[in-house]
Structure formats: structure tokens, C-alpha cells
Amino acid sequence: MEFDYRLREWLDTPSSNKNQFSSDTLYNELLLSESKKKIQISLAITYSCNLRCSYCFQQNYDHLVRKPITIEALEKILDKISLILYQNPEVDVSIGLFGGEPLLPQNEKIIDRVFQYCVENKLKIDITTNGSFLPYFAKKIVIHRSII
């Protein structure tokens, strides 16, 4: 989806160059592009991965920033999601985590915040993972199984 690519590009752009994109423009594009009753918001919380699978398209994107999203950037995204929820109470919104590998141990604070947000707002979440760190996150996944 073009919007998803542009949002990721905006998040990976150094703040000094962000004047070419605005979060409001991206938000408006999202609202216009998603006229259905369901919206899944995909969050690429990192482009890092612990594996190098031959079939994975991520390795073709060496230019992408490999650091996880910051808490500050995540909070801005969650604020936009809150606005979507407020303005569209009839829309079923869910959050998808992908990347790279979202379940890397260094992403734990980000994962915790996304889980907390989803619980508070009664949102479902799905996670695209290679499963390598499922044992590390097992307790959190079991605790939040009603939203996953």
C-alpha cells in the first residue's frame, strides 16, 4: 500500500528533512484510502532481524534505518490512532506489528507500550514474527492472548 510505504519513509527521514512530508497529510491519506469498516494499522517497529532468510524481502532494503522506533515516535503514531478511533467509532481498528523482527528483545519496551495501548483501547493486535524470541515474550503473549 502506497500510504504504508510513505509513512515508513516519513518515520525513517531525519527530522530536518520532514518538511517534505507532514503527519497530517499522511493521516488524511489514510482516512481517504481506508473507506471500509475495518482498518489495520501496520507498525514496522524495526527493520532489524536476527535471521537472514533467503525468501525475505527485508534484506533488499539495506538503506532502511535498523534502529527500533523511538517511544516518542510511537506515541505520535498512537495519538493519530486515537484520533482515528475518536472520529470513526464505527470502524474496527487493529494493529499489526512487523518489520524486520518485531519481537527482538531490545524492542520489549515498544512491545509493552503497544500491548498496553491495545488493551486500553480494546484493539486486536497481530504480530508477524519468525518466532525465534517467542520463549522470551511468552509470558507477555499469554497475558495478552485475548487481544492477539
UniProtKB/TrEMBL annotation:
PROSITE patterns: MOAA_NIFB_PQQE, RADICAL_SAM. InterPro entries: Aldolase_TIM, MoaA_NifB_PqqE_Fe-S-bd_CS, rSAM, rSAM_sf, Sulphatase_maturase_rSAM. Its cofactor is [4Fe-4S] cluster. Coiled coil: none annotated. One of its GO terms (molecular function) is oxidoreductase activity. Belongs to the radical SAM superfamily. Anaerobic sulfatase-maturating enzyme family. PANTHER family: ANAEROBIC SULFATASE-MATURATING ENZYME HOMOLOG ASLB-RELATED. This is Radical SAM/SPASM domain-containing protein.
